[in-house]
From TrEMBL:
Record region (Disordered): 1-26, 158-181, 309-333
Protein name: Non-structural maintenance of chromosomes element 4
Broad class of the protein's primary localization: nucleus
InterPro entries referenced in this protein's UniProt entry, alphabetically: Nse4/EID, Nse4_C
A single GO BP: DNA recombination
PANTHER family: NON-STRUCTURAL MAINTENANCE OF CHROMOSOMES ELEMENT 4
Originating species: Ambrosia artemisiifolia (Common ragweed)
Length: 351
């Protein structure tokens, strides 16, 4: 027999039948696997849609779902089906865990409340192809009426059935008594605290301007820093803001970003009106952490503003540099008094 005749020979019919049976079994197995996965998908959708009904105490939905999942579990063979089985059990466990948390905390979610109302007082009604649920509000009202201690039915409050008009009372005129002029009490005049603060501020401003006239050009940190007291550092900033506002001081920034302060003559009013002198503004923010950083940057002894001692009302003076309890109490008092005003000092600078 030639080679070509061997190639053209056909296999026996018995082998064709075996192949057809094998193909049919594969197709049936594939269809069964697909039906099984579709069943798991429908169970997952049912768990998501009916989770409130599943978690209800009187519902038998949970038992039916778990029995269905248990029956399908015996048909699982492939990893893909095992994943679907695990996802269905996970969704069911999450639904039960949420229900347990709600019952343990004593809170009721709106969805659980509405589903309970529909279960207890709902009435299904078929309208065409759609199914609607009506709530029996009358039954709900009768059920909750004992809570408000009111009998079944409506209650009203009625006024008097017969209303008689009463005659008006005759008016009696009374003579007014003249009020006795009492001695006017003049309150004790308090000390003008604002004037004292203003005087101290003016003294600080004058001291700072004298220092600037002597040194001509100084660094801003060396001018305002008081290494001993944060409160006096803020007061120095406050005094510098007045000098800048009046145009008696100019603040410049070099290429390195350092601020320098130098004195100058205040511009005339006509120059300001004619826009010959133009103001430029910036905001200077300063807090306790900035004061600590400034104390580390400025060399000790390079401060220009002197430390001001606080006069004790009982006599004598106190310095913030003392380490005793009285000095600490004075510092805390000054800080508390000025913190609301000078915690973050800002001013308008004029160039």
């Amino acid at each position: 027999m030639s080679i070509n005749s061997d190639r053209n020979t056909k296999p026996p019919k018995s082998e064709d039948k075996e192949d057809d049976v094998a193909d049919q079994s594969v197709d049936e197995n594939f269809k069964e696997r697909r039906v099984l996965r579709y069943g798991y998908l429908s169970i997952q959708n049912l768990i998501r849609d009916k989770k409130d009904e599943i978690s209800a105490v009187s519902s038998k939905r949970f038992l039916s779902i778990i029995n269905e999942v248990d029956g399908m579990h015996h048909l699982v063979n492939n990893p893909r089906e095992q994943v679907s089985d695990a996802e269905a059990l996970r969704d069911l466990a999450n639904t039960l865990m949420t229900s347990i948390r709600v019952h343990s905390t004593g809170n009721v979610t709106p969805s659980v409340f509405v589903s309970s109302l529909i279960t207890q007082y709902g009435k299904k009604r078929q309208i065409g192809s759609t199914e609607n649920v009506e709530i029996r509000w009358k039954d709900i009202g009768l059920q909750v009426s004992p809570v408000f201690m009111i009998g079944n039915g409506s209650s009203t409050m009625l006024g008097p059935m017969k209303l008689e008009s009463k005659p008006p009372k005759p008016s009696v005129s009374r003579k007014r008594r003249r009020s006795v002029k009492l001695e006017k009490v003049k309150p004790e005049e308090l000390e003008d605290i604002t004037s004292k603060e203003k005087t101290e501020t003016e003294k600080t401003i004058a001291t700072m301007f004298d220092i600037l006239k002597i040194n001509k050009k100084v660094r801003l940190e060396n001018l305002v820093l008081n290494r001993i007291s944060f409160a006096q550092t803020v007061e120095n900033l406050f005094a510098l803001s007045f000098l800048v506002k009046d145009g008696r001081v100019m603040i410049m920034v070099d290429d390195n970003g350092s601020h320098y302060v130098s004195p100058r003559n205040a511009p005339a009013a006509c120059k300001i009106t004619s826009r010959e002198v133009v103001y430029s503004h910036f905001i200077f923010r300063f807090d306790f952490n900035d004061w600590k950083l400034m104390s580390n940057l400025v060399a000790e002894g390079a401060e220009l503003m002197p430390h001001r001692t606080k006069v004790n009302p009982c006599g004598g003076s106190q310095s913030d540099s003392n380490s005793n309890a009285n000095s600490n109490q004075t510092t805390r008092t000054v800080t508390k008094t000025l913190s609301k005003r000078f915690e973050e000092a800002s001013w308008v600078a004029c160039n």
